[in-house]
Amino acid sequence: MLTDQVLHCRDCGVDFTWTTGEQEFYQSRGLTNAPSRCPDCRSARKAMGNAGGGGGSDRGGGGGGYGAQREMHEVTCASCGGVARVPFVPRGDRPVYCRDCFGNGGR
To answer: In angstroms, rounded to a whole number, what is the distance separating the alpha carbons of residues 36 and 7?
Structure first.
């Protein structure tokens, strides 16, 4: 059972609470480590574009307005059979919808 945890920020030294909701979010994303920075320092670091180094990614794509163009992939809409352009490679285990069908709840 998850409980709120008080953690210590490695950048500013302030104590912050890592809530059970945040822990559940981390688990749903497959993340196993608790955050080492408070929300303010995480936001500041994101705003700098990770200029401080650390574990980047060489997968390309991305987003977030850093000037990189997303690679789009064409797939068949699971609802209407039309062409859907998406910014990820579908795994095949979940339906993918075109813009119109997605906006209508997949109908």
So the answer is: 8
Distance of CA 74 to the CA centre of its chain: 21
Residues 6+ apart with CB under 8 A from 23: 2, 5, 34
List 16's β-bridge partners, or say none. 7
Residue 59's nearest CA partner among 30, 88, 32, 35 is 88
Of the candidates 60, 37, 58, 59, the residue with the CA atom closest to the CA atom of residue 48: 37
Kindly state the tokens that stand for 30. 């497959």
Tokens 């990770």 label which residue?
50
Q: pLDDT tens digit string along 65-101? A: 566 677 888 899 999 999 888 888 888 899 999 888 9
Consecutive H or E run containing 99: helix 99-103
